[in-house]
Amino acid sequence: MKLSVSHIAKAYGGRTILADCSAVFEETGTYVLMGPNGSGKSTFLRICALLEQQDSGEIAYLDNDTSLARDISLKRRMTLVLPRTGVFNTTVYKNIAYGLKIRGLSHAAIEHRVMGALATAGLEHKRDQHARTLSSGETQRLGIARALVLEPEVLFLDEPTASIDQENTEIIESIIQKMKKESRSMVVMATHDRDQAERLADRLLVFREGILVDALNP
Amino acid sequence: MDSILNGFTQAFSLILHLNPELFGIILLSLKVSGLALVIATLLGLPLGALLGLKRFPGRDLAISAMNTLMGLPPVVVGLFVYLLLSRKGPLGFLGLLYSPSAMIIAQTILAIPIVTALCHSAIVNVDPLIRQAARTLGATSRQETLAVIHEARYGILSAIIAGFGRVMAEVGSILIVGGNIAGYTRVMTTTIALETDKGNFELALALGIILLTLSFLVNAVLHAVQRKGSVSSV
Fold this sequence. Notes:
The structure holds 2 protein chains of 2 kinds.
Chain A lengths: L1 E11 L2 E11 L3 E6 L6 H8 L7 E8 L2 E2 L4 H4 L2 E4 L10 H10 L5 H14 L15 H13 L5 E5 L7 H17 L3 E6 L2 H7 L2 E6 L2 E6 L2
Parallel strand pairs in A: 3-8, 3-9, 6-7, 7-8
Antiparallel strand pairs in A: 1-2, 1-4, 4-5, 9-10
Helix pairs in contact in A: 3-4, 3-5, 4-5, 5-6
Chain B lengths: L1 H15 L3 H34 L5 H11 L4 H12 L14 H25 L3 H9 L4 H11 L1 H16 L3 H7 L9 H11 L2 H32 L2
């Protein structure tokens, strides 16, 4: 699945957040959106993840050049990890299982996939722990595991390491590197950390005051 | 002092000997208040969720109205239901006045604002990140709503228990619409009022002890639920 973004614009209360942004994201590859806070990266991600509506411009998900309908089945082929993971008031296991449960998967399939995601995020030993007792780094890894378990074709990551320590940042980066190596899905990640962007990106897109000013290969 | 002590002794004797009249009154009280609470929850929870999750014109007014109605005077509700159900009232043809059904209607009206307002408060206090998380994980809007309600479950349970506490202890409205008919509409609170008037303190005290025990149990459960909720939200 390929994503084509053409001339997207968005404003809140008269303040322009995005102005005429266009880009094409191929089926696999890691795209990193760079830019300072408030430059429009998060809004761009939310619009691409179909969680918010743009004021103007087009978002198209294409399968063999056919534009896909903007419905729940398309939304379920992608997911977004937020800078701060909101955890459900239950165990780590049930938090990760949530997305699979609402998709109606069997108990056995859920268990199999959740165990895999727990292992990937290094949270196997926290499986039955209450999710709200995790550290902030572990909570963010839970957010990543909760997204990975869905095996999304497009994974959007909005500043996933902005508020966590070095050790957890490295774990999350290694998960992204692993995904990149396996090239099973498209990863679009926003960060304001230039070094991190260069470590992870196949392609860098730079935002400045709502404008996509540069796209380069690191 | 002797008459009070004597009253207590006889009250405990009634309880220990499983006095049929006493237990008939307790069962009717539980049935009337229990059914009123079920209906109030079935109406109040969706209403509270609607007020907590949707934006629509008049929402703020509806929230203020629910909060105000939490303090509805029971006698006013009794009067209102009486006028509705009396022979000349708009629903008089149903013939429900002085029946347990009339009492259930009155208690439901009293409990709905409590259940609605407290459910609204529980739902509105759920971290907005929960709704966002459900949405990013592919929830439909119905699943998103259910995720928020599930998250507010301890607060919702507290709302239901608070509603139960209110209707169990209520006397004004059911006295007006139920008529306190022995063996038919006589419940704990109305019996206490009547027997005290008559100077028969034994039955009144026995029911008072049971009502207090029930109230204590309800509050203990409420406290336990709130504690579990706050432990879970660490």
